[in-house]
């Protein structure tokens, strides 16, 4: 009787493919073994029941290869039709057809480094909520966002580890496990710990100033700032290991980082592909090289032991003698995170800040006045005692973060599969839905900020009450705003994220920005070289995981 039931292997293959689709849809997994079982198990099952016992092996193979295309084609059609059908939980949200079907297209487009611009264009076309993937929404409505920050992290960082077994801190979706793994980071980025790092960064900034004084009038400031932040990252995280300010980039550190981040940016959109590539030698060479860099720093630090209270003093539980160290792979994952987040984000923001100053001479002049007020010739601008009172400095930093966010694609959250739908303002978000909140688009929305595309530090002083709107200088070419026309929504300014998985390095990053900016403005006057097209800087910025920026040629003139 069972044999008769399988007398139509095509129909059975179709039925099993439809069942497989439901398993895929409900139980998300990145295991290649489970994927293999679901893709090739049903055709094998069909072949087993229709095979001729007289020639078992040959009959099995023939049955398998007849059933396999039926299974795969039916599965693909079922997936596509379901994702496009009104039965899909996100069917009511608008978005481009290709995004509803698969994330492969946006992953490919991300290699151009323009995914922030793509996201902005989609929101201009479709509105505040856009379906940007089969199970993904992008939201720029601040009223809805307030209900989403406390959700668990989404899956985008799973694939960048190139493994389904070793999930890095940034890829952990379970809130309790994430909180446990983050505790050493919280200790290593506490107020007391950041105080320990102050003099380390100050020493590096002093070295940068000396190196810039040696330059023959013109330099690529972006390169020197990269050297500074990378050297400091190694000092702060690993107790040393890099001397780019002294020796230059002989090992092409930043080329390796950029290529690795380019691959990572694509794999964040299709995490399962990252897991697969991890099993294929050389398939993700650029990202694997970035992993090796982080691994090398960690192993050297562990072999050397603790000589200072660096970040790994806390990550390795050296501050808790009665607590065993974490698994080595956890430390390696943390090392990779430190390499990227500890240097690339600050160098990107600092370079863009100087770009904004040299292209906005009035703002540059005002910042010089404030720096000179607190730090006279001969004073050390790396002493942070005045930073909190320097309102224009902080306004310039905030405005740079608003326009040139170093990770502008935005944070990702996910409604748990086993939860109720989340009501976020007027929107109902079903279980299993991934939610993106793109900083680039939000920070440049005219509903949240007046003159959103303009560099206008005064907006922060007006919003805080330190400057009257009537007395404020407007952006170049813009007309005066009446009191009721000024728009500033603090809820739309999210440079460090919100909720339990916000950026743990916020305090250190702000300190670095303040100290570096003060030192450069205090010691030097920068201007664009003659004939340089300032517009090319913004055009050449690429966003992968973090922003990679083009060279910033400047003419350097010491002030004292």
TrEMBL record:
GO terms for molecular function: heme binding; iron ion binding; monooxygenase activity; oxidoreductase activity, acting on paired donors, with incorporation or reduction of molecular oxygen. Pfam families: p450. InterPro entries: Cyt_P450 (IPR001128), Cyt_P450_E_grp-IV (IPR002403), Cyt_P450_sf (IPR036396), Cytochrome_P450_monoxygenase (IPR050121). The chain crosses the membrane at residues 6-24, 31-51, 63-82. The keyword Coiled coil does not apply. Pathway: Secondary metabolite biosynthesis. It comes from the Eukaryota. Heme binds at residue 503. Belongs to the cytochrome P450 family. This is High nitrogen upregulated cytochrome P450 monooxygenase 2.
């Amino acid at each position: 009787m069972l044999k008769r039931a399988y007398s139509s292997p095509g129909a059975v293959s179709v039925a099993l493919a439809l069942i497989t689709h439901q398993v895929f849809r409900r139980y998300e997994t990145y295991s290649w073994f489970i994927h293999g079982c679901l893709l090739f198990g049903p055709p094998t099952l069909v072949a087993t029941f229709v095979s001729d016992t007289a020639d078992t092996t040959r009959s099995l193979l023939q049955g398998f290869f007849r059933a396999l295309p039926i299974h795969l084609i039916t599965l693909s059609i079922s997936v596509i039709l379901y994702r496009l059908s009104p039965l899909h939980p996100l069917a009511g949200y608008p978005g481009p057809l290709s995004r509803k079907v698969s994330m492969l297209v946006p992953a490919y487009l991300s290699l151009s480094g323009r995914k922030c611009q793509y996201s902005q264009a989609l929101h201009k076309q479709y509105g505040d909520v856009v379906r940007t993937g089969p199970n993904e929404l992008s939201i720029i409505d601040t009223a809805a966002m307030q209900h989403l920050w406390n959700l668990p992290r989404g899956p985008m960082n799973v694939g960048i580890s190139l493994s389904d077994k070793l999930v890095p801190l940034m890829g952990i979706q379970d809130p309790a496990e994430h909180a446990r793994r983050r505790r050493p980071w919280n200790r290593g980025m506490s107020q007391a710990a950041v105080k320990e790092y102050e003099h380390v960064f100050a020493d590096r900034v002093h070295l940068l100033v000396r190196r810039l004084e040696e330059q023959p009038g013109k330099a690529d400031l972006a390169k020197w700032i990269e050297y500074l932040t990378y050297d400091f990252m190694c000092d702060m995280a690993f107790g040393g290991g890099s001397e780019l300010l002294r020796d230059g980039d002989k090992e092409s550190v930043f080329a390796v980082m950029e290529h690795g981040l380019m691959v990572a940016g694509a794999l964040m959109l299709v995490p399962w592909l990252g897991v697969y590539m991890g099993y294929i030698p050389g398939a993700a060479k650029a990202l694997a090289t970035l992993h090796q860099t982080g691994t090398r720093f960690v192993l050297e630090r562990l072999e050397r032991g603790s000589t200072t209270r660096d970040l790994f003093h806390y990550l390795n539980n050296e501050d808790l003698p009665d607590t065993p160290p974490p698994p080595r792979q956890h430390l390696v994952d943390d090392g990779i995170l430190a390499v990227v987040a500890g240097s690339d984000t600050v160098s990107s923001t600092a370079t863009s800040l100087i770009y904004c100053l040299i292209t906005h001479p009035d703002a540059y002049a005002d910042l010089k006045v404030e720096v000179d007020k607190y730090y006279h010739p001969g004073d050390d601008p790396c002493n942070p005692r005045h930073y909190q009172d320097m309102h224009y400095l902080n306004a310039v930093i905030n405005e740079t973060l608003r326009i040139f966010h170093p990770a502008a694609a935005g944070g990702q959250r996910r409604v748990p599969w086993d939860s109720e739908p989340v009501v976020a303002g007027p929107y109902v978000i079903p279980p299993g839905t991934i939610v993106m909140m793109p900083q680039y688009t939000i920070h440049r929305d005219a509903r949240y900020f007046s003159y959103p595309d303009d560099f206008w530090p005064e907006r922060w002083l007006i919003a805080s009450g330190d400057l009257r709107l009537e007395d404020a200088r407007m952006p170049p070419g813009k007309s005066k705003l009446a009191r009721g026309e000024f728009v500033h929504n603090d809820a739309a300014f999210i440079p460090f994220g919100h909720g339990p998985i916000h950026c743990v390095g916020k305090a250190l990053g702000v300190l670095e920005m303040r100290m570096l900016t003060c030192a450069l403005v205090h010691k030097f006057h920068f201007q664009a070289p003659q004939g340089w097209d300032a517009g090319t800087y913004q055009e050449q910025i690429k966003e992968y995981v973090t922003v990679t920026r083009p060279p910033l040629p400047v003419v350097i003139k010491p002030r004292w």
